[in-house]
Amino acid sequence: MATFQGSTSGFAELEAALEALLPKDATSAGRSACRAGAKVIQAALRAAAPVSDIEEGALRPTGKGKTIAHAKISQHISIKKGTSSASGGIVYLVGTGHAFHAIFQERGTIHEPARPFAVAAFERAAPAAIEAIGAILKKQIEKKGGTVEL
108-142 pLDDT, tens per residue? Predict the structure, then answer.
């Protein structure tokens, strides 16, 4: 799992402004902001994903006498809303969906070397995602009648 360490400023003020809102408004603002951050990560992963010359949906053999439809990694990077098992809060997950072979690109196999793209893309996009989250939170708080002093 990719992790990011960085510094932020202004989030304590945003948190205080969120607490001053009605719970449903604060939740809505948080959802919008988290989704905006996830979209930044999704765009970075799509841009960095390897592209093959095999047509999307083309059948290819699996080596076990079966065939499988080819899925381009970049076209299947999606955002899913979920619930954190630790906190019970809402989370947005960015994943590769039906392009299961993305893990083989990232980690390699016994036959192919790793060609990592996801961790580096995430690390490059994380600061922009944090900025997007802060900007959308501020915008949503002000839209819902709150004030933010940064």
Answer: 999 999 999 999 999 999 999 999 999 999 999 99
User: Higher model confidence: residue 58 or residue 127?
Assistant: 127
**87 DSSP 8-state letter:** T
Domain range for residue 54?
25-143
In a domain, 133, yes or no: yes
Using an 8 Å Cβ cutoff, are 6 and 125 in contact? no
Looking at the domain assignment, is residue 99 inside a domain?
yes
In our burial notation (b when 16+ CB lie closer than 10 A, e otherwise), range 83-119 reads: eeeeeeeeebebebeebebbeebbeeeeeeeeeebbe
Alpha carbons 3 and 122: distance in angstroms, whole number:
8
- When divided into structural domains, the chain yields a total of 1
What does the DSSP 8-state code read for residue 95? Answer: E
pLDDT tens across 23-37, in order? 899 889 989 999 999
